[in-house]
Amino acid sequence: MRRVFAKHAGAIPRGHAFRAAWIVCATCALFGCKVGPNYVRPPVETPAAYKEAVPFKPAVPRDQEPRGNWWKVFKDPKLDALLAQVEINNQTIKAAEARVREARALTQQARAALFPLVSASADATRSGSRGGNASIDNAGNVSIQGGGVRNNYNVSLDVSWEIDLWGRIRRTIEAGEATAQASVADLESAKLVAQAQLAEDYFLLRVQDAQIQLLNDTTEAYQRSLKLTQNQYAVGVAGRADVAQAETQLKSTQAQAIDAAIQRAQLEHAIAVLLGKPPGGFSVAVEAVPTEFPTIPPAVPSELLERRPDIAAAERRAAAANAQIGVAQAAFFPSLSLSATGGFQSSVLSQLFSLPSRYWSLGADLAQTIFDAGLRRAQTDQAIATYDENVANYRQTVLSGFQNVEDNLAALRILEQEAVVQDEAVKAARESLTITLNQYRAGTANYLAVVVVQAVALSNERTALGILGQRLTASVALIQALGGGWSAASL
């Protein structure tokens, strides 16, 4: 239901009318309030320290913390060159950047509602009928009685303005700004995810290169073993079964080397897509796998809330949902709109802008919904539920962030211990292989023993490379879990 608050159309002096209108506007702007709850960041429980960070915490200088181009801590120029292209060419990042511009434009649309809407119009009409007379009233309106041809010219300026008495527009702007900040954090998340994925794929590719090289070297060693077995078979020292076993082992290892090329090709293709390039025209040259690991200080858990862009995005969405509660609650109060129109109207073009042709009007419209069958209450309940959902999502994102850090701290700590033990296993397997081969050449061991120790040696070598790959990817994952050096202050 709408009720007219006041309407004036040339009834009072124009100067007085405009002054009265501006006094009303200034009063409304000065004393207007914002309904709905003011936002407070939802509290979350944070531990005092990471449980898995004990070996890393003492004597770790904070200046080693990865910041900005975090991948440079690995000191790999090839990786630096690849990651420098991700932010420029990755299509997922471009889509996230477009969403940032979209969110900012929506915020600007909401902010525009704070200001008056001004429009201008001009029209000219020509009408006629047979017989009759035309007359012009005091407002300049032309009426035709009977016949004749008449012109009508009109130029006007219209102003309308909704006064934000209850803060509906301001709450909408708050929601838009928080959503825009969330989209910026989403963009940083997209960058971090793409960069971390490329770094992990790159290190896995390097490990795969090492695996292929190991299998090729092992194949050459097995070819020598086969040649030795064939020579011993020729002089009657070894049996045909030894030759068959040597051939089987050789061909099996060659097949493993060929199979390893599949994963390398797939990793290369994945890197190309992350760089926004067709896989068919992209390749990564074979290089040695890195063996040095950066020191990554995890800081304290409370800092994670400011360092992870996904946590910042979730918190900003909670803020936006909180502002929407105020928007919904503002619907319970009346809305006030002011309007003004002024212009010139005449049937003679040369007299259009003369004093007798002018007209103006000022008005105010106060509207209040009386009955809506619970619509506004349901909309408010929906806004509150949406806020509660976003708060729960924020807290879950924080918990997942703590888990990511703890998982990768534990992985790095345990993998480091495993690598030490595995290196000892590799050394023992190599020594066992050397001893067994010498025994075979001396005729004191059969070839089955050689096959067994060769298989054990190869398996341990491959396991060691696998652990190296896990340590490299866990280092990347830890940096990603810590936010990659990003800070919510940039919002």
Topology:
Blueprint: E1 2-8, H1 14-31, H2 77-89, H3 91-112, E2 117-136, E3 142-163, H4 168-234, H5 240-274, H6 304-307, H7 309-330, E4 335-346, E5 358-367, H8 375-442, H9 447-481
Antiparallel strand pairs: 1-5, 2-3, 3-4, 4-5
Helix pairs in contact: 2-4, 3-4, 4-5, 4-7, 4-9, 5-9, 7-8, 8-9
Describe the structure.
- The protein is an alpha+beta fold and 491 residues long.
- 58% of the residues lie in helices and 14% in strands.
- The protein is built from 9 helices and 5 strands; from the N terminus they run βαααββααααββαα.
- The protein has helices at 14-31, 77-89, 91-112, 168-234, 240-274, 304-307, 309-330, 375-442, 447-481; strands spanning 2-8, 117-136, 142-163, 335-346, 358-367.
- α4 (168-234) runs antiparallel to α7 (309-330), α7 (309-330) runs antiparallel to α8 and α8 (375-442) runs antiparallel to α9 (447-481).
- The model is unreliable at 1-14 and 56-64 (pLDDT under 50).
List keywords for this structure.
491 residues, alpha+beta, elongated
Q: What is the residue-averaged pLDDT?
A: 87
Structural class: alpha+beta
Report the span from N to C terminus.
Answer: 43 Å
Tally the beta strands: 5
Question: What is the global morphology?
Answer: elongated
Specify Rg, calculated over alpha carbons: 39 Å
Helix content: 55-70%
The run of helices and strands is EHHHEEHHHHEEHH
Number of helices: 9
Write out the strand line-up for the largest beta sheet, numbering strands in chain order.
1-5-4-3-2
